[in-house]
Amino acid sequence: MAKVNTAPIKWAQRSDSLYITIALQDVKEESIDLSDSELKFKGKSNDKEYEVNIEFFKSVDAKDSTYKVLPRSVQMCVMKNKPEGDDETEEFWPRLLKDKALEKNQVKIDWDRYVDEDEEEEAGGFDMSALEGGMGMGGGMPGMGGMGGMPPGMGGMGGMPPGMGGMPGMGGMPGMGGMPGMDMDGGGMEELMKQMQGMGGMPGAGADLGGDDDDSDDDDLPELEES
After folding, report:
1. Which residue, 90, 85, 83, 84, is CA-closest to 16?
2. pLDDT tens digit string along 72-84?
């Protein structure tokens, strides 16, 4: 039977929580069981078997605690339990484990996260960035089942607003059907002028082409030289 080694533990605390680190690299086949009074861990690191079996100094809240297996350690944030009806404020613990002798041999202070009790307000809570996407230790994370769909009307564009499906009346320009191949010599220009003036969709087109009346345009046109 392979020898089972005791995994080294580091810890720090705030008045409402504990930050526990199991200092093992590349942990595989891990098993973590957190109850309101104990933490049990088993796993492999560098082909060696490790375990943790500890009883906390006071009770914790397993359902709101999380953990994550990282390349250099297993980290967890364990929430302290505040008994219902207890009006006392949350407090710092004098140690992590109920067994004082076991703590001396197995547990070290995590000085990177440590703060004194009177410095907590200034230091703030733990940096939880390392635990993003971590696993719940007492159940799932309610309310994260999905995005629940986009807001009404955002599932798709649903088409353009009314009246934008097309531009009525722009299907063609009446009276312009004769332009392709039109002979511009001789009477071609005269014919073009008449068609432009007779277009229903371009009121006042005759005025834009110069002249005060329908017949004056023809008098001002220069004669074209015959080839």
Report:
1. 90
2. 999 999 999 976 6
